[in-house]
Amino acid sequence: MKYIEALHELKIFHKKDIVILIEDENAAKEILRRYKKQGLISQVRRDLYVVTDLASKVSLVSKFEIAGHITPSSYLAYHAALEYHGVANQVFYELYVASEETFNNFDYEGISYTFCPSKSKVGIVTPLTDSLIRVTDLERTMLDCIHRIDLSGGLEELVQCFVLITYVNESKLLDYLRNFDKQVLYQKAGFILSYFQKEMQLSDAFFEECKSKIGRSTRYLTDTQESDTYFKEWKLCAPENILSFLEQGGNEYV
Question: Is residue 57 pLDDT above 80, yes or no?
């Protein structure tokens, strides 16, 4: 039990962390084997461990904290980031985890951790109150989800999430859009966010910049069957009224 207190301070760790603690690789392997057998720690996946509650033997680490330690660069993205920021409409049992290093998808304690390639290093943060977590900030999360609506839970879920957002940093949105430099993202972001301009406190200048970058190509917001209406202003085909998704719940937004 000599190292339990030190492991509880770490909460989540790799074998190398134990080697550094004990200064003996063989002894570290034995400690991991013994503690795992006693239920003092739990193995999440190869070379990743978490401490457990001494009474219940349940992991003391959240799914969000695990996501940030799968690889050296891993972080919560897409719908998982929406959920972390507290604006998800539904809680999913699949977490999308972006990373520069590829990892195999795996399940742990009923949660599926799914790899997504990291597209950019901008907007990835470690919250002040959650030092074990890495996640895209709200503005980066919004743009990622707009770009990959399929990874945000679908258009209905995305709209339901965006209704819960009352303020965004417009300067950050524009900086990230310039960093991504994708015409289609300017189109989709301008179109979707125009429905929430007042609530998110976005200026007309934001939408003018989006329009100036969209080029001549006509795009589809979702699949061709669902996106059956052409919006000339954005050169975009989309559902006739994306806010209609809110009508079922009787949301006063509609």
Answer: no
